[in-house]
Amino acid sequence: MSDYNVHKKNDFFSFRPRVRLTSFCNRNCRYCFAKEYLSKGEKSCEIDLNSMEEILYQCSEEGIRGIGWQGGEPTLHTRIKEIIELHKKYSVKATVFTNGLIEKEVIESLSGIIDSVLVNCNEPGSYDGDELERLLNNIRLMQKLYGTEKVAIGINIYSAQMDTSFILDYALQLGINEVRIDITRPSPSNKNLFIEWEKIGETFDLAKKTHEILCKNSIKYVHFDCPFPFCALSEDDIQYVWDHMNSDLGHGQCSTALDISSDSRITSCFCSMQFEGIATSDFSSLTHAWLFIKYLEDYVKWNTHTKEDCMECIYSKRRLCQGGCLGYKLNENSVNSRDILFSQKKLYERAKIVSKLLILYRKGKIQECYDESKKMLKKQDLAEEVEKIYLLCAIYLNKNEDYQDRANYLLKKSYYPALDAFCYASALKENGFLDIAINIACLGLELEKNKMNGKHKIYYFLYEAYMKKNETEKAYLYLIRFFKSSPKLNKKLL
């Protein structure tokens, strides 16, 4: 999971679907945001093997290299070993979200398909009998089989008075490198134990203290995972979250998730938009389904306000802060039925068209992607997205177009010019257009109004670019700027 580094491009072409393998869980965490989904007893709803194979086949066809496993407790699926074999058949990796109380044989079977594992941990007193000993031994076995760098533990803070010291004890006992910290978020019905809006600030104080203690004890990679509303934090704390977030814009907004339930329906994160009766088969591809959800969620992020003050907030207008978790904006009545496929027909068709380009690009079919995007450029409602894809394809195919004018035009419209400039400049540099790449990177810096929007990536890019030109004085100037402006987490990983 720790794949965030200065070289990571602003890649709007990739995503990781998450599959809810089963609705059964062998734990009963009060704060769990999946409470409505979980089955009451051991009888559960499981995804069938045919549906799982279809998902993995689609992933291989769309150039999607990995999926997430969720639940319930996903490893309790009664045919888990057959699912593992399907992963091997289609060469699709798995990121497993687990409570860690699983069978040793399952841990061993997973060895060939694991991309990463996040083990959710609770206080020692919440475990019965030998459960805590089993948990720690299971994590040790995962570290041995998968590698320490692929195994993280996580804590969900459900109260500002919670004793979080146990997570340091676990990390030190296990020699853990990565710890994820989050506060609990509301389920659609608000029936789980979550942090009320008014208490986000004081709960963040505890999350920050927990983070600081872990770092002081030499845990290498300690990070936050989900966005916080900026108005609930001080300016210093906004900076702190950005310094220790594992994604470029994650301190203020979340990434769109495509979750697939155990009956093959599409949905999003448990805290986000919910859908009813809409199957994966209603879309031309998984990428199509993901983009459709993304378009819908983007509207909620920037047009549905958590508080009245959000309407005039500069952070909202610049699309930096979505007003906290979407769970604070939505509720159990915010369920989208099949009617949305018809009421939002235009968005559905737009997602279908753009998804075709993204799949072509992701699979390396650049010439075909270039030809298709060129045909679409005249469609006004697709122009901005298609132009991004068209420009990158033109660069990789060395089409001798006016890359700089086209990039300048796109950057001036962008909410995130530094991140987009980094993407274009990286492609130009890789393909031998170093001087144009430098010009575009510099324009991205000039246009970017917020230092927390990727300026550090441009600085590091310019350091490397000028080193390649043997202009060391300029190169070291940008390296200094990089270290002054980069997230602390980013510098630590370097």
Order of helices and strands: EHEHEHEHEHEHEHEEEHHEHHHHHHHHHH
Which bin fits the share of residues in helices? 40-55%
Total domain units: 2
Mean pLDDT: 92
Per DSSP E runs of 2 or more residues, the count of β-strands stands at 11
> At the fourth CATH level, what is the homologous superfamily of the largest domain?
Aldolase class I
Characterize the largest beta sheet: strand count, sense, and whether it forms a barrel.
9 strands, mixed
Strand content: 5-15%
Task: Label the structural class.
Answer: alpha/beta
In angstroms, what is the radius of gyration?
23 Å
Shape: globular
CATH class of the largest domain: Alpha Beta
Per DSSP, the total helix count is 19
Spatial sequence of strands, sheet with the most strands: 7-6-5-4-3-2-1-8-9
- Unreliably modeled segments: 1-10
Q: Kindly report how far apart the N and C termini lie.
A: 16 Å
**The CATH topology of the largest domain:** TIM Barrel
